[in-house]
C-alpha cells in the first residue's frame, strides 16, 4: 500500500505535539474527534485528530506517546484509515476489539503522565482510563490548555456566525413552553438546575438555529436551565442579533460563552442535573469543586426533541416531497448520462446538489454525500475526495447516500442503481436487501418495543444466505436538526442490553436502511425515512405502532429479482411507487415526468415466488 501523500506533514505535526508535551512534563496525550459539547460532527476548529493524523472520518481517537502513537477506529473505517494515515507514524487499532485504555496500558510505564483535555472527553471515560493507568503505575492528567492547540499554529477560530430564530410556525411549540416543560421536570425531581451542552438540544430548547457545524444547523453555546423556567445562555455576543435577543425574552439571561465555567462555580449547594453522555468531564469537575449536588439524568430535551409534534412532522413530510423530486431528477439524469462514460463520483455528487438547490429551500446538505462507485460502495461510510474520486463505469453499481437540510425538515435517502446490466449476484443481494427493507416498513409492534427487537426483520433474508451488514439498520433523525439523533435507533442490541434502549414512540423519525457490501466489488443500501405512527388493527388487544414511510423516490427495478418477492412484498412495492408518482409527479415535467412514470410501473412478478 502506498504511503499517504501528506505523511511528511503529519510527521512534522506529530513532532511538534511531542515537543509541546515534553515542555509540559507529559509523556503522552489523547486526541479525540470531539468538541466541548461531545458532538458527533464538530466545527473546523475542533478537527484536531484530522490535523494531527490526516484521518477524515467522523469517529475515532488518537493516542501519542514519546516513541509510539496509534489511531483507534471502528470497522467502518478500516480501509479509509489506511488510505489517509501513515502506518509508519501511527498504529491502526480496531475498536471495540481493543481500546485506548488497553493500548496505553500495554505501552505506558510506571511514573509516566498521560494528558487529556477534560473539555473533550466524558467523565466516565476519564475515570475509567485513570483507573487503568493507575494500575500500571502511570497517571492521567487533565490539562488546562490543549497542547495540540499550541502546536496547531493556523487553527481556525470557532465560528462567529450569528444564530437565527427558528419560528414557532416551523417548530410547532414556543421556546417559552419548551423551557416551562423542562422546569416542570426539574421541580418534579426536586432539582434546581440542569446543565445543557448538546448543541441540538440547545437549538431545540431555545428555538434557534446556527451554522457553526457543517451540515448541522446549530450554534456553539451552553445553557443552565432552572426550576423557575428562567435560563442562562452562554454564547459569543456577536452571535446574538436584536431579533434573537427579542425572541429569547427577559427570562433568558445572555452571557459570553467564555463565562460558562465560572458560572458553574456559582452553583454551590444546588441540586444540578447533568447528562454524563453529553456533558464533558470538565463540567463534572467544576461542579464538584463548587460543592454542587450532582445528579445524573439524561438531558431533558432529548426525548421531547425526538418525539416530533404535528407541525414538525408535516414540515418534514413537505421537505421530503421537494427532496424526492430532486433525487428523482438526479436518478433520471444518471440513467441517461452515466452509461456514456466520463462521469465520476465528485461530478455526480455535485449534480445531485445542483438538483436540490434548483428545487428551492435548501439550506445545506444534511451530511457529506456518499457518492460511491463500484468497490467504493462497499465502504458504508465512504467519503469521496480528490484522491479517492472514482470513475462511474458500466457494469458496476453506484450507491448514493445523501440528504438536505430545509427549514421545515431534514432528509436522508440512499439509492443504489446499476450502470449497465447488473449481474445475477447483484440482483439477488439487492432483492434480499429490499425484502428486509419492506419487512421493516410493514412491521407492526406493540408500544414499548425497542429498535433492537425489530432489527432482525431487515437482516433475515441476508442471514439466510450467510451474509450480513456491519452497521445499524436505523438511526433517529431531527427536524431541521441533526441527521443522526438519539435516543431512538434500530440495531443489534448494544452489548446485549436491549432493556436499556429507548422504546419507540409515536412521532419519532428513523431511517430504514439495510444494506449489503462485498469488499472490493460493490455495495447496496436502500434507505427511506419513516415516522413511528399509531396503528389501528381490528381485534387488537394491544396498543400498536407501525411505520409511515415519508421518503419518496423510485427503487431501481432492474435490480430486482422478481422470483424472490412474495406477493405481499410486490404489493408493498407497487403501492410505494404509486405514492412516489402521486407525490412527486406534480413537481416534475417533460422527460423527467415520463421517466418517473416508467420507473414507478408495477414490478414484474414471477409466476411463483421462491424462498430467499
From TrEMBL:
<feature type="domain" description="Creatinase N-terminal">
    <location>
        <begin position="13"/>
        <end position="144"/>
    </location>
</feature>
<dbReference type="GO" id="GO:0005737">
    <property type="term" value="C:cytoplasm"/>
</dbReference>
<dbReference type="GO" id="GO:0046872">
    <property type="term" value="F:metal ion binding"/>
</dbReference>
<dbReference type="Pfam" id="PF01321">
    <property type="entry name" value="Creatinase_N"/>
</dbReference>
<dbReference type="Pfam" id="PF16189">
    <property type="entry name" value="Creatinase_N_2"/>
</dbReference>
<dbReference type="InterPro" id="IPR036005">
    <property type="entry name" value="Creatinase/aminopeptidase-like"/>
</dbReference>
<dbReference type="Pfam" id="PF00557">
    <property type="entry name" value="Peptidase_M24"/>
</dbReference>
<dbReference type="InterPro" id="IPR033740">
    <property type="entry name" value="Pept_M24B"/>
</dbReference>
<dbReference type="GO" id="GO:0070006">
    <property type="term" value="F:metalloaminopeptidase activity"/>
</dbReference>
<protein>
    <submittedName>
        <fullName>X-Pro aminopeptidase</fullName>
    </submittedName>
</protein>
<dbReference type="InterPro" id="IPR032416">
    <property type="entry name" value="Peptidase_M24_C"/>
</dbReference>
<keyword id="KW-0378">Hydrolase</keyword>
<dbReference type="InterPro" id="IPR000587">
    <property type="entry name" value="Creatinase_N"/>
</dbReference>
<keyword id="KW-0479">Metal-binding</keyword>
<dbReference type="Pfam" id="PF16188">
    <property type="entry name" value="Peptidase_M24_C"/>
</dbReference>
<dbReference type="InterPro" id="IPR000994">
    <property type="entry name" value="Pept_M24"/>
</dbReference>
<feature type="domain" description="Peptidase M24">
    <location>
        <begin position="316"/>
        <end position="532"/>
    </location>
</feature>
<comment type="similarity">
    <text>Belongs to the peptidase M24B family.</text>
</comment>
<dbReference type="InterPro" id="IPR029149">
    <property type="entry name" value="Creatin/AminoP/Spt16_N"/>
</dbReference>
<keyword id="KW-0645">Protease</keyword>
<feature type="domain" description="Peptidase M24 C-terminal">
    <location>
        <begin position="544"/>
        <end position="603"/>
    </location>
</feature>
<dbReference type="InterPro" id="IPR050422">
    <property type="entry name" value="X-Pro_aminopeptidase_P"/>
</dbReference>
<keyword id="KW-0031">Aminopeptidase</keyword>
